[in-house]
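Hi W., the nicotinamide-adenine-dinucleotide complex you wanted:
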Amino acid sequence: MATAAKSKLSAFDEVNIFFDKAAERLDLDNGVRDLLRQPWRELEVSLPVRMDDGRIKVFHGYRVQHNGARGPFKGGVRFHPNADKNEVRALASLMTWKTGLMDIPFGGAKGGVQCDPRAMSEGEQNRLTRRYTQSIDPIIGVNQDIPAPDLGTNSQTMAWMMDSYSQVHGHTPGIVTGKPVELGGSVGRDAAPGRGAVYVMNEACKDLEIALEGSTAAVQGFGQVGSWTARLLHERGCKVIAVTDVGGGAYNPNGIDVGDLLLHHATVGTVNGMPGTDAITTEELMELKCDFLIPAAIERAIHERNAPKVKAKVIVEAANHPTTPEADDILNDRGITVLPDILVNAGGVVVSELEWTQNLYQHQWELNRVNEELKKKMTSAYAKVREVVGQKAITYREAAFLVGVGRVASVVKLRGFI
Ligand code: NAD
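Structure:
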């Protein structure tokens, strides 16, 4: 099973390489650069949890608030064994540039707890989530910081977070997004990162002269983001030829029926063993000849060792930070287009903002309205990035960072605290 490649740099250092390039192009003052590079606030918490066997286990957790110049901090909570401080910082900073790029009124934050939810019972996860919520309570709030799901967490986790927060503060659905619809969640939020990714691919196909219908895609990860991306691509006639997850992989060069794969996954908990497919590893998936390679799992999945072997025409970064800066350079030199994470997977935070707005108005919108708003946001952000790519002859990632960092920097100056 492929894991993230070890790099001398932390994930946070790596994201700051992308930031520094944008800061240089924008000719930002050194003081502004320092302010934008660092998290504004970090909270590190120890979380004692009674496990089902009676033991007390202490987990480590973080909430990093990277930048709040443009609005309340916003970002997911990750439950994963590798969720250390630098990874959470990296993800928090990506949220700052993503909300800037998408022009939505939030800052950037992220949370993480070092644990393996797959090895924990539902009761243990519930108790851990409540302890984490209570521990970060002093720094979160509807107008301060609004968590959401990420790797290893889901709408159920958000329901527990909301319940735990509401026990102290009164009924507060707007404290988290990505909740179940019955508790004030938005219809369309589960699908949003995948749907947003497909809207971006649709637009990019026009510029790259690829027909989505009849194209081929390989997807790493079949969780919330990967499964929706694969499903919506399949619906649009793209052949999903390979999918991997922590349990293994499924490969069929003629295309996998993603509807059947969802049923198989729901039954056995992995894509592995899907009837009519051959087994495939993530290493092999990365090297498949296809139109779209879609990392939708963990960070640093594409690194300097596998980047030279990638045969896809386009990388669609549905995961956060799936490509190291070294790999990014290699892919660019090889003429492979990389559609960057802060654009591709921004559908999650776009619909989170719609959910938050619905909660403030105590109102629920219909799916058509949510998807229309999402489409508008994704296509206009893509158009902006494409325009900058053309004007400056730079990569999609460089253009996306340029727009995102530029918007945050200008608000920092307007607010007058520097
Ligand atoms: P998830 O926990 O729902 O699913 C993760 C998937 O990745 C699972 O199928 C898991 O088996 C697989 N996976 C994990 N490690 C793997 C490995 N080494 N090789 C192959 N597969 C592996 O998580 P998610 O919410 O779908 O998040 C996936 C990525 O998308 C993360 O980078 C996350 O930060 C990003 N993201 C999530 C959201 C959201 O709203 N959930 C929004 C934007 C971006």
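Residues 1-5 have pLDDT under 50 and may be disordered.

W.
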